[in-house]
Amino acid sequence: METAALFSELESIYPPDRLLGGRAELAAFESDGLTAFSVTPRAVVIPETADEVVRTVRLCHKHNVPFVARGSGTSLSGGSLPIAEGIVIALNRLNRILELDPQRRIAVVEPGAVNLDVSRQAQVHGLHYAPDPSSQQVCTIGGNVAFNSGGAHCLKYGMTANHVLGIKAVLANGELIELGGDSLEQTGPDWVGLFVGNEGLFGVAIEVTLRLLPRPESYYTVLAGYESVEAAGDAVARIVSSGLLPGAMEIMDALAIEAAVAAVKSEYPPGAEAVLIVELDGPSDLIDAESRRLDELIRDSGAVGVHVATSPEERATIWKGRKSAFSAVGRLSPDFIVQDGVVPRRKLGYALRRIDTLSKARGLRVANVFHAGDGNLHPLILYNGRNEGELERAEELAGEIIGLCIELGGSITGEHGIGMEKRDFLSRMFTDDDIDAFRRIRVALDPKEIANRGKMFPGGEPPAMASGGLHPLEKKGVISRE
Amino acid sequence: MKPASVEEVQDAVTRHARLLPHGRATKPPLGSAPEEVVRLDMTGFSTITEYEPDEFTFTAGSGASLREIEKTLSENCQYLPFEPPLIDEGASLGGTVAAGLSGSGRLRFGGVRDFVIGARFVDGTGKLVHGGGKVVKNAAGFDLPKLMVGGMGRLGVLIDLTFKVFPAPRAWRSIRVSCRDFADALGVMTTLAGKPLDPEAMDIEPPATLMVRVAGDDASIDKHAERVGKTADRPYEILPPEDDRSHWESGRNFKWVPDGHLLIKVALTPARLAGLEQALLPADPPRRYAVAGNLAWIAWPADRPAEDLDLAGLGGMVVRGPLPSDASPRLGARQHGAAAFAKCIKTALDPQNRFPPLI
Questions:
Q1: Which CATH class is domain B6-167?
Q2: Are strands A176-180 and A164-171 parallel, antiparallel or unpaired?
Q3: Which of A38, B96, B191, B320 has the highest Cβ tally under 10 A?
Q4: Which CATH architecture has domain A218-327?
């Protein structure tokens, strides 16, 4: 590693205000959404053009210095945690929407473009970008691509990978590549499909072509209260097997409800131990008929209170309660860990009961807010890092929950990625031969393993623990978690 | 050779210098190889190994017949929305993934790449590799299932695949819109595609017919179909329900392709459609433009020189028809931007080139 040589060459690319090395300047980049960990990088560069990114990556390759490309740093798996001996490439200034074509229904964007800005700009054409992570107000497309981000509408619309058509990128070995294009179809291997979700281990995307969809004409959003989480889970199973395909199905448990009520003054049916939010979207004539079927299903599912949004404002209020629930739960406790496991949908009720048992055994509270439609759990483990041994217990509980997801045939991550946080669990989901194939791909594209080193693959030294708590942006209420 | 177990596939891969898997051989041109290869018949892996209707996922062997799979799904009111092509000809699940083929129905919810969620394959080193999982949402590890889409069997031998499926709509309707000419059909298609009408499929049958398919509840489908027709603002007819199904079945099984023709797939965008149509007009081969201008299917007489086929600067791939086994199925322009990436991935998974080069 030739860090000094790299820095002198970086100085020829970046003016001092875009090449940060001071302790205070670096502090803002030490952590991402996984606030329990913190690492100070050697330097941060702030490119303003794709060419600067390419030159930076080539220099890192030449001098064998690891780098982490980072957007807004909202990763919940520590995916953009810096590397102590490396640099951070901060992409927020590469935030242009280069092209938005309503005829082809595509947007071509730079990696630092903010997710929600794409939909905002597409709105005048009656279009939108479907993937909507809860952090969509600040998270960037580059980060979404690296981690194949999800959101509340994956059941019907899929994840980021389902909406990316083309990628220009600089590989960690310095090669410039162009994958896919602007068509929905292709006539060769799905290189784009492989690139999305690479967790920053292949290189840096410098231009991304996104598919846009017409904005749904009509929504039908129902909030129903239940006497137990299991009852809400059963209602989900009933709705899914009825043949309806809701855009979203979300459940919050009692602790999450309590927090949401306190934080955003949301109102929920009295006596509800769980709430289920179901949203249909589509052409208004079709939704009319489907909403009647949904009403019947909910009525027969033992709901203790049902509220149907009758205006866009009421819909927004329902979603606000849901999307702020995690940050709100976080306020109940000094520290928390968010998990992201997936279980087969029919095992949801069982998984929640087991999580409850595990939580009681460890003496830690767990709130549940999750994407019920696709079995993606987000148990939130509350702890106080100042109490001796509590963080360790919280981590053990998190590990037990992940183990439960694997045992039930699910996944260790639905949408947050492996990152730094779950790398030691990768080998519980994949065999040595599977991981060896991942590694061969990684090394072929990044022979020096400089791109986001230390992420996804098992092993390596754990980074220093930080104080934890809410992300600074969460404290301000700017972002929220899934 | 027809392996019957994963071990036999692994053994074949490690023992033979050059080999290439195939399913039910419905797309022979995609099995082309520049030199002699041992052909691995994967129809020994034809079972639906897991299907939980409540889970909306299934796992089946790569050689499994898609017709069988669709039949099983439909018994539970479920379907693969992307309408895999050539199922009447016996297309297999693995072959469809390897060929990366989706039908007209991929417009609304995505293609084969969007529905495959897990894959097991034997790579060029003989190792059994698994990627993805069995749940509908999963972000763990590199997305190897998607990598297998369009790999034409040259990155690994598919053993089995896991798919997500969707609830089948209760009713479908098709609207046949009679436009003035091709440019008009393209204009109407573009207008409809930008509106929140959620069509399942939208194809142009040159010169001037636009076919739109919608799906939904019995109670509302007729009203919705009328709405699509009225929005098109051209003369239209709504096909009787029985004709709706046969129209799209005939389409995805390419009944419209005459004997002795090559079937060519071209990926494009609506913006390039007018140029392609203009280039094809002089020769006037049978053709259809599917997926709202993202996919062209062209039938080209096998006895005519392929050089006569003008693809307007686009690239095509011969999927069916009498093509010599050593001829490349690629026609027209190639995209070179992925070459360095492709080389790395091919080398990583198949360092000794057990499988023929990517096409």
A1: alpha beta
A2: antiparallel
A3: B96
A4: 2-Layer Sandwich (3.30)
